[in-house]
Automatic annotation (TrEMBL):
Keywords: Ligase, Nucleotide-binding. This is Phenylacetate-coenzyme A ligase. Its EC number is 6.2.1.30. Residues 85-286 form the AMP-dependent synthetase/ligase domain. Residues 335-431 form the AMP-dependent ligase C-terminal domain. The keyword Nucleotide-binding applies. PANTHER family: PHENYLACETATE-COENZYME A LIGASE. GO terms for biological process: phenylacetate catabolic process.
């Protein structure tokens, strides 16, 4: 195991003592410097003096995305803007983006956390990282960039897009690692194939993929097409950006949350009631070390399970299982809850299909209809219509069996489903128009 910092294997008792000290300091600071937190705590009759144990975090109010919007752009900053050296923003589907800020120290903390993620993914100083996360307001590009430099790897700031040029640089710069969304990794693999480049023969060894939900099946697909180990990285701009947690390459089984910087909880999506370890719910974070934009009990809307079981890598930080999806991406089709990742899982188990898909939802009369558009593999597309129809019918049955919902499956020709340049658009919900 390559540890970036000894704190990763700290005994739980010591880790929790560190967390408590930092939680108390964070609550104290939020109360005294951010009007929103003071008002929200006063409303609940709770103050910094009530935080005596880690469990007392549950006394604190939740922060939600709408609170960030209501305080646009800088209303939740805990330092004067003169001390803020960077802002990022995440675009909502509607209205104003949500804005987050970083002090000089926050930028250093963030870089160290991403360096930790890269080390957990198996990178060492001297490695070369091709960074294809988008640069700009999105935290992916600059987040991975600073983390790579912090670890001492040679970073190519490629950003997203220009896929053919990316393939050229992958050959010429000989990176040992690539960072991009899982959907873009497949786009790259496809482009390389069409250019006659065998990407598996390049020195590329590891992929650090996140920023969108993906499945275990997708991992196998990426690993076999690119000839790499594909590792999951997690984060969100409201909490810091990428670098909140990462899988270790030893287990590739859930993301270690860097608990010395983030206190993580799992709560019931509807009631907000805290859930015990092992139960699925919404993940909630409290930052423990951030200066410019500390955040208390942020409701991520990401659905997962926290697993405290010891990991074979030796890290003591709790693992969060792969994200199933966001609560707001969950489709309700004729009363059945469906996550796009469940559909992905079924599609990827069908050998004659390509990993490019998009789900459309319509309302026909009073009924919701889910249409799964998925590309056939090139060999399937050479077969007669009936062969494709048989595959479509099998997928319809599998979706019914595994997810419990009736869907229409349309097999598309190669290139007919839009390719991702960053975060893939998995669902088009025509009901919302
Ligand atoms: O996506 C930060 C990031 C950049 C993470 C690069 C990893 C790599 P946002 O744009 O604010 O930030 O989007 C955050 O993306 O709440 C999740 O819903 C989703 N997400 C991020 N990582 C994962 C992951 C970045 N590994 C939102 N698996 C989060 C599933 C993820 N979903």
């Amino acid at each position: 195991m390559i540890l970036h910092n000894d704190v990763e294997t700290l005994p739980r008792e010591d880790l929790e003592a560190l967390q408590l000290k930092r939680l108390q300091a964070t609550v104290e600071r939020c109360y005294h410097t951010v009007g929103f937190y003071r008002d929200a705590m006063d409303d609940l009759g709770v103050g910094p003096q009530h935080i005596k144990s880690l469990a007392d975090v549950r006394l604190l109010p939740y922060t939600k995305k709408e609170h960030l919007r209501e305080n646009y752009p800088f209303g939740l900053f805990a330092v004067p803007t003169e001390q803020v050296v960077r802002v990022h923003a995440s675009s909502g589907t509607t209205g104003k983006p949500t804005v987050v800020g970083y002090t000089r120290r926050d930028i250093r903390t963030w870089a160290k956390l991403v360096a930790r993620c890269l080390a957990a993914s198996g990178l060492c100083p001297g490695d070369r990282l091709h960074n294809a996360y988008g640069y700009g307001l999105f935290t992916g590009g600059l987040g991975l960039h600073y983390g790579g430099e912090e670890l001492g790897v040679m970073v190519t700031p490629m950003s997203g897009g220009q896929t053919q040029k990316q393939i050229m640089l992958l050959q010429d710069f000989a990176p040992t690692a690539i960072s991009c969304t899982p959907s873009y990794a497949l786009n790259l693999a496809e482009e390389a194939e069409s250019m006659g480049v065998d990407i598996r023969k390049l020195p590329l060894r590891v992929g650090i993929h996140g920023a969108e939900p993906w499945t275990e099946e997708m991992r196998y697909e990426i690993e076999s097409r690119l000839g790499i180990d594909a590792v999951d990285i997690y984060g969100l701009s409201e909490v810091i950006g990428p670098g909140v947690g990462n899988e270790c390459i030893e287990a590739k089984n859930g993301l270690h949350i860097w608990e010395d910087h983030f206190l993580v909880e799992c709560v019931d999506i509807d009631s907000g009631k805290p859930l015990p370890y092992g139960e699925e719910g919404e993940i909630v974070f409290t930052s423990l070390t951030k200066e410019a934009f500390p955040i208390i009990r942020y409701r991520t809307r990401d659905i997962s399970v926290l697993d405290p079981a010891p990991c074979k890598c030796g890290r003591t930080h709790v693992r969060m299982r792969r994200i199933t999806g966001r609560s707001d991406d969950m489709l309700i089709i004729r009363g059945v809850n469906v996550f796009p990742s469940q559909v992905e899982s079924v599609l990827m188990q069908t050998e004659t299909l390509s990993p490019f898909y998009q789900i459309e939802v319509f309302r026909e009369g009073s009924l919701d209809t889910m249409v799964v558009n998925v590309e056939g593999s090139p060999p399937l597309m050479e077969q007669p219509e009936e062969a494709r129809e048989r595959v479509a019918q099998k997928v319809v049955r599998d979706i019914k069996d595994f997810i419990g919902v009736s869907a229409r499956v349309v097999i598309k020709g190669v290139g007919e489903v839009p390719r991702s340049q960053g975060k893939a658009v998995r669902v088009i919900d025509h009901r919302k128009k």
